[in-house]
Amino acid sequence: MLEMGKLDSYPPGFRHLNGSPAPLLPELSNHSMEDSSSSVPVPVVDLQCLSLDNLGEACKEWGVFRLVNHGIPPSLLSKLEEHVKMLFALPFESKQALLTNPLSYFWGTPVLTPSGAALRGALNINMLEGINVPLTQLPQFQAEDPRLQGFRHCLEEYGRHLSRIATTLFEAMVKSLNVCPKQTESNLDESTGFIRLYRYPPRSLADEAWGMMEHTDSSVLSIVNQDRVGGLEIFKDNKWLLVNPVSGTLLVHIGDMMQAISDDQYMSVKHRVRMNKQEERVSICYFVFPAQGSVIRSSKYKPFTYTDFQEQVQNDTKTLGYKVGLDRFKLTAPAPV
Ligand SMILES: O=C(O)CCC(=O)C(=O)O
Ligand SMILES: [Fe+2]
Fold it and tell me: What is the pLDDT of residues 148-204, one digit of tens each?
């Protein structure tokens, strides 16, 4: 028996999970779900005793690390997870009616823009449902429905913690990289932060489905809080490695913007999500970006803003079907004479 929410909580296109074919979803991947990915101990960074050397090495070697002693009360983490699971378990039609402006509910979409809109033309469809939460708009959110009230409070509190964590880490990274803090001060802006909640269904009998296809994040930093089901994989040394969930810890990813800010010393790590055979998976992800108009200056890239980057990504996705990413902004090496 699959362990999952009621079938009527899933979007109609996902309801082949009871064994019948899925008419609405395309074939998702050529990879076999059985290809082995070994699980690895990613580096650990302790926020309370932050070592710049340790942090720098994790960002250079891995582009991802596990954050411990982050200061988020365990009770808040579990309360938020409960709310998220409860909301996703509601009937599909109720979620569409309930999760409205400034929240947005989406499913099966490819890459999304920070506003929550799907990028048109993308080849990849992700097998997930998501709720997009722009943090700065939460205070105006009139959560009249009692099912949303506690959820809103948790999100606000969680958002404050995540802003604090992202700012602390970014400042430490700038120090560790030895770049001028003045030059990078607007390269991370708390007010751009948003949260995305995801639910991935269990892998169907159809066997071929990635919850989220491989990608790099366009953010400065992304902070992932995955439940105990797991399934997040990172690409390192030409191999896919499974990042095991460890309760109470967070996973911090270096995004494309941070890679450019660091002049390619840090790597924006490629990752994907594998669906679990038996159980649905929930994750709570936070993304933060440079301030509007803030220019990223480095020796390897032409100066660009996040808006330039996002426009290019949207254009490539529309015309090519995929994100080219940082290569579009790379300064080409002068031809040898
Ligand atoms: O659900 C996850 O663990 C990761 C999600 C992710 O990679 C993303 O939203 O960019
Ligand atoms: Fe990602």
Answer: 989 999 999 999 999 999 999 999 999 999 888 889 999 999 999 999 999 998 886
pLDDT of residue 120: 52
How far is the C-alpha of 162 from the C-alpha of 234, rounded, in Å? Answer: 22
CATH of the domain at 225: 2.60.120.330
Please report the DSSP string for 85-96 in residue order: HHHHTS-HHHHH
What's the CA gap between 246 and 257, in Å, rounded? Answer: 27
- Whether 180 is covered by a domain: the verdict is yes
Ligand 1-lining residues (CB < 6 angstroms): 196, 198, 212, 217, 224, 226, 232, 271, 273, 283, 285
Ligand 1 centroid to residue 108 C-alpha, Å: 14
Closest Cα to residue 111, out of 337, 288, 322, 299? 322
- The first and second tokens of residue 314, run together, are 């949207």
> 335 C-alpha to center of ligand 1: Å?
39
Give the model's confidence band at 27: pLDDT under 50 very low, under 70 low, under 90 confident, else very high.
Answer: very low
Query: Among all ligands shown, which has an atom nearest to the Cα of 196?
Result: 1
The CB density around residue 63, as the number of other CB atoms within 10 Å, is 24
Q: Which of 44, 208, 15 is nearest to 107 (CA)?
A: 15
C-alpha 150 to ligand 1 mean position (Å): 24
Q: Is the dihedral of CA 6, 8, 11, 12 positive or negative?
A: positive
User: 53: exposed, middle or buried (C-beta count within 10 Å: 0-12, 13-18, 19+)?
Assistant: exposed
Which position has the token pair 């390192």?
236
Any domain includes 110: yes
Q: Which domain holds residue 45?
A: 4-307
ipTM of the complex: 0.99
